[in-house]
Design brief:
By secondary structure, the chain is α/β, with parallel strands linked by helices. The chain has 2 domains: 205 residues, Vaccinia Virus protein VP39 (Rossmann fold, 3-Layer(aba) Sandwich), CATH 3.40.50; 97 residues, DNA polymerase, domain 1 (Orthogonal Bundle), CATH 1.10.150.170. The chain is built from 13 helices and 7 strands. The chain has a 7-stranded mixed sheet, with helices on both faces. β2, α3 and β3 form a beta-alpha-beta unit. α7 packs across α8 and α9 packs across α10. The longest helix is centred in the last third of the chain and has 15 residues. The chain is globular.
Length: 329
């Protein structure tokens, strides 16, 4: 893919499992849907075309700015009332963001977790090692950068991050090599240190630096905590019958979504007639949990980046939301 230019309609980002996401959400005329991860607007465009009003969240100021820079492509921004409302903030704050514009319940929430193609393809954002760039990785473009973390954290903390978030079995060896090579300034510096520590073989199916880049990115952006808060927020704002669709790209994220839906749907409870019935306070808040959906051969051929994607979806019941969102504490 080529580097991203100014506007989302020009961006090379291809929304993953788009038809499947739309089928899971079943958007209709007048529905209100949250696109928790706006990116280039692929999901948002289809939802708008189906007649829905979309509240789009993104913590990356570039994503918001790019969409605003193309008003001809997004006339819904200026409709009366607006059918596209932009929220330049984290999706973990969807409850607060919606409340600020007077929205308490919505008909659907879609979340596309992880880094976007636009971020990966911009070397200056520092998310990938395909081309050398500053060691940044910050989705919001503020706060602790990857370079800050790798150049100041102690060896044991770096090893823990690589192991927990990258599932890197040789995390201690890699962390030792990182500390010895400091300061690291570019994505190329980081990748070379990891490859040398792990014995990179050119032509291997997977670059050994992939796991470490994933781990540091997740840590710098607090992505797993964001996912926890985002799922709880979706539970809080979805009306009875509202639908949740979540696309993930690696096992750590997918396990969180799978376990959330299992617990929220009561699938983890025994249904034995010899045990007490589940009381109203613990009634399932999600039902009709669909089987995991993965890209088909045609999508894999057209968009290789979709290969690790998994879609999970479910429908909100009329049970009260559990007290899991921070704003409800």
């Amino acid at each position: 893919m080529s580097p991203v230019t100014a506007t989302p309609d020009q961006a090379p980002h291809v929304p993953v499992l788009l038809d499947e996401v739309v089928a899971a959400l079943r958007p209709g005329q007048g529905d209100v849907i949250v696109d928790a991860t706006l990116g280039a607007g692929g999901y948002t465009r289809r939802l708008l075309d189906a007649g829905a009003t979309v509240h789009a969240f993104d913590r990356d100021p570039d994503a918001i700015a790019a969409l605003r820079a193309a008003p001809a492509k997004w006339p819904e921004l200026e409709s009366d009332p607006p059918r596209l409302v932009l929220h330049p903030r984290r999706f973990s704050e969807m409850v607060e963001g919606l409340a600020e514009v007077g929205v308490e319940q919505v008909d659907g929430v879609v979340m596309d977790i992880g880094v976007s193609s636009m971020q990966l393809d911009q070397a200056e954002r520092g998310f990938a090692f395909g081309s050398d760039g500053p060691l940044d990785m910050r989705m919001s473009q503020e706060g602790l950068s990857a370079a800050d973390f790798l150049n100041t954290a102690d060896e044991s903390e770096i090893a823990d991050v690589l192991y927990l978030y990258g599932e890197e079995r040789q995390s201690r060896r890699v962390a030792r090599a990182i500390v010895a090579a400091r300061p690291l300034e570019t994505t190329g510096d980081f990748a070379r240190v990891v490859r040398k520590a792990l014995g990179h073989r050119p032509g291997a199916p997977k670059d050994p630096a992939t796991r470490s880049f994933q781990a540091v990115r997740i840590h710098v952006n607090g992505e797993l905590d964001e996912l926890d808060e985002g799922l709880a927020g979706a539970e809080a704002v979805l009306r009875p019958g509202g639908r949740l669709a979540v696309v993930t790209f690696h096992s750590l994220e997918d396990r969180k979504v799978k376990h959330f839906l299992r617990d929220a749907s009561g699938a983890g409870h025994s249904t034995s007639r010899h045990l007490p019935q589940v009381d109203a306070e613990n009634a399932p808040v999600f039902a009709n949990v669909a089987k995991a959906v993965r890209p088909g051969e045609a999508e894999l051929a057209a968009n290789p980046r979709s290969r690790s994607a998994t879609l999970r979806s479910a429908e909100r019941t009329d049970a009260p939301a559990r007290n899991t969102h921070r704003s409800a504490a």
